[in-house]
Amino acid sequence: MAGRSRNTPDQQPSEAEGLLPADYDLADLYGAQSADEDPDDTAVLIPPIALPEDAELAAAALAVPLISRVVALARWVAPHREVDEHGDLGEADRVQAARMLGAEEPDEEDVVEAMRAWALACDLDLVETGTTEEGAHVAIPGPDLDAVEAGEPAAVLGLWFEAAELVRELAAEAESVDPEVVEGGGRDDSDGLAEVEDARDQAAEILDEALHTLYEATAFAEPGAETVPLGVLAALLVVPDGQEPDEEMLGEITDLMVVLDPMLGDLAELGLVEHRPIDPDLFEEGGDGGDGEGAEVLDTDRPLTEEDAARFGTVRLTPLGQYAVREWLLADGYDAPLIGDLADQDGPALLRALAEDGQLFAEAELKAWLAARAPLDAARDLLAGARGRDVQSPVRRYYCVLGLGEIGEEAAAPVREVVDDPELGGLAREWLRARGADVPAAEREVALWRIVDSMAAVMLLTAGEGGRLQALVADLPVTDNPASYFGEVWRVPHPMTVEVLEAVGELHLDRKVAKEARRAAVKARSLRAQGA
After folding, report:
1. What are the Polar residues biased-composition ranges (predicted)?
2. How far apart are CA 497 and CA 504, in angstroms?
């Protein structure tokens, strides 16, 4: 299938005149934020996503206009239709195909679009060509047509994904074509072809990085907020983490937007993305001495509206796009989990997995897990998984509390069963009292253990960074005699007592409290060594 032709200016992106993102302040144009973000936001390399059921994805694939045209053409050739030796339709059949696809009076453009769909149908083997015993060249429907028309998910998604791979490859190939090389251009053929090949590889790499970035951005986005300005996408690819873009980077962002824009347009044809292209009116006519008359120019001295920003292009990865990118990530050896992958695990296995990998998406994973279980059974299973005194146990208890919160009042009975448990008693009493239950406060030793356990969980989840740990340290119920308070804490038999005390000693704003915490940490470390 031939790639879509590019109606791009004669200039290279860096030479194009007119109003482009580099003319604006990055924060104004892209809503850029400082690097002081919650460190949790970057903790997972490939975040888990939620995908619709295969049947819903298959229905979406069949609703893509290009796919519907491909399927219609495959049915149209039944039982067979004559083609030439190259598998191409004759002129009359081309017009008839365009008419069958909805063009009442087909013009040249209608015929071209019909033949693009025909080429894709042949590439996907939904239309097969061959030779009869009499030597005639014919096209017939492929063997998967019936299953595809019936909407069988495996057949439809297999067909659509194969088309997605072709379109992704051809989008990069079309972006990299140099007309001078294609037409000869007076240069050495081998050098020119090598240059095109390098450009194609570079375009493919850029597109893959953009799709990977979109995949992550979509996973982190709030529902309804998955659309990404094209400038934001380009900035994420250009600007290193934690840096503010300089003037050179702004130019690179603009160039990259111009490169990505047509490739994303090709992917939009197959439903991988929803794409609003860069408004061509933002390019002033230049390079030929023109005065740019007729081109619309934005006023950069006034605030940029949402509509103005959208004219620089937007893109949204669809569920079909998420499905395709995940398949490509898996093929490249990445672990690309789905929310709900842990739904068949028991409580201990679920909490272990969340403690190791799923911090950012625990709530969604817990909801998927809970949906498959009776509330009482789920609560007991979570509490069983929360036990232990290994280093990861504080995080398991943290997620256990989240899960119990999702269950709500129906978890009260199982929680009451563990109020006297040495590891879960403090958690249980705290949970019940927060819901108005008449439960005595935990004994002093259990209460102190719970304080250490809660701080340890936050330390492990945040790697000790961010404001959550600072807030817990500030809220410690230290008495007027911190030496007495920490004299109790350092004896708490918790696997992270030393680390918690060291964190208090480093972060507490009261110098006297911080000093006593550091002294207690030394004693706790000595006690740990004696027990080793």
Report:
1. 1-14
2. 11
- The predicted pLDDT at position 188 comes to 57
pLDDT at 34: 32
Q: Which residue has the tokens 């979570």?
A: 382
**For residue 68, what pLDDT is reported?**
97
CB-neighbour burial class of residue 329 (10 A; exposed 0-12, middle 13-18, buried 19+): middle
**What mean pLDDT do residues 12-29 have?**
42
* Beta bridge pairs of residue 138: 82, 130
What is the 8-class DSSP label of residue 124?
T
Q: Which of 176, 278, 294 is nearest to 233 (CA)?
A: 278
- pTM here is 0.75
Helix axes 497-507, 482-489, angle to 10 degrees: 150
**Mind giving me the DSSP string for 392-439?**
THHHHHHHHHHHHHHHGGGGHHHHHTTTT-TTTHHHHHHHHHHTT---
Alpha-carbon distance of 259 to 65, in angstroms, equals 25
**How much is the pLDDT for 381?**
97
Q: What is the DSSP letter of 18?
A: B
C-alpha–C-alpha distance, residues 501 and 520, integer Å? 7
Cα distance between residue 296 and residue 285, in whole Å: 10
Q: How far, in Å, CA of 93 to CA of 119, rounded?
A: 14
**Window from 236-240, 287-291, 346-350, 516-520 with minimum mean pLDDT:** 287-291
Q: What is the pLDDT of residue 482?
A: 93
Euclidean distance between the first and final Cα of the chain, in Å? 68
Give Rg (Cα) of the chain.
31
For tokens 């002294």, the residue is 519
**Of how many residues is the chain composed?**
532
How many C-beta atoms lie closer than 10 Å to residue 227's C-beta?
18
User: Does position 23 have pLDDT exceeding 60, yes or no?
Assistant: no
